[in-house]
Amino acid sequence: MISHNRHQRLMRQLGELYRNATCVLVPGGFGDRGVEGMILATKYARENRVPYLGICLGMQISVIEIARNVLGLERTNSTEFNDQNPNPVVIFMPEGSKTQMGSTMRLGSRKTLFQTPDCITVKLSARTLPGTTQSLWMNGIGTDMR
């Protein structure tokens, strides 16, 4: 995590860097190198209404950023980077391998239950899952409920 003062300084620097940007692209990647900077770039895009495209890790970064800065879940992270964090919002799937990454990951093979905004589970989860609301809801959950 980044200290408050350093965070403010980095956000000012991002503002200068992205002043003329028409979009922010956060690509895929592996490991935790640069993740906090990606989270800051994602936050900048959200707060300044700059179009954002997160690919693979970039999408996971956007989930972490929303959980931290909109939902207020401190120390939120992915279990890929920190398997002991108290608020995991992205899990490292056991089907994957932490040593062989990339095209070897067949993430689409995981059984997932998908929900629609009008289904009863979404209405129930808004009452039971922290951070779920009518406008922000979990749209899929593993069959093991993770």
Strands, helices and their partners?
Layout: H1 4-17, E1 24-26, H2 35-47, E2 52-54, H3 57-69, E3 76-78, E4 87-90, E5 112-114, H4 120-128, E6 140-142
Parallel strand pairs: 1-2, 3-4
Antiparallel strand pairs: 5-6
Helix pairs in contact: 2-3
GO molecular function: ATP binding; CTP synthase activity; identical protein binding
Catalytic activity: UTP + L-glutamine + ATP + H2O = CTP + L-glutamate + ADP + phosphate + 2 H(+)
Protein name: CTP synthase (glutamine hydrolyzing)
Spell out the helices and strands N to C.
HEHEHEEEHE
Proportion of β residues?
Answer: 5-15%
Name the overall outline: globular
Q: Ranges with pLDDT <50 over ≥5 residues?
A: none
Strand order of the largest sheet: 1-2
The residue-averaged pLDDT reads 75
Distinctive features:
single chain; 146 residues; alpha/beta; Rossmann fold; 2 domains; two-stranded parallel sheet; two-stranded parallel ribbon; 4 helices; 34% helix; 13% strand; globular; glutamine amidotransferase; ATP-binding
What does this structure look like?
The structure is a single chain. The chain has 146 residues and is of the alpha/beta class. The chain folds into two domains: 4-108, 3-Layer(aba) Sandwich (Rossmann fold); 111-146, no CATH class. Helix content is 34%, strand content 13%. It is built from four helices and six strands; from the N terminus they run αβαβαβββαβ. The protein has helices at 4-17, 35-47, 57-69, 120-128; strands at residues 24-26, 52-54, 76-78, 87-90, 112-114, 140-142. The strands form three sheets. Strands 1-2 form a two-stranded parallel sheet. β1, α2 (35-47) and β2 form a beta-alpha-beta unit. α2 (35-47) packs across α3 (57-69). The chain is globular. The relative contact order is 0.10. The mean pLDDT is 75. Its EC number is 6.3.4.2. Pathway: Pyrimidine metabolism; CTP biosynthesis via de novo pathway; CTP from UDP: step 2/2.
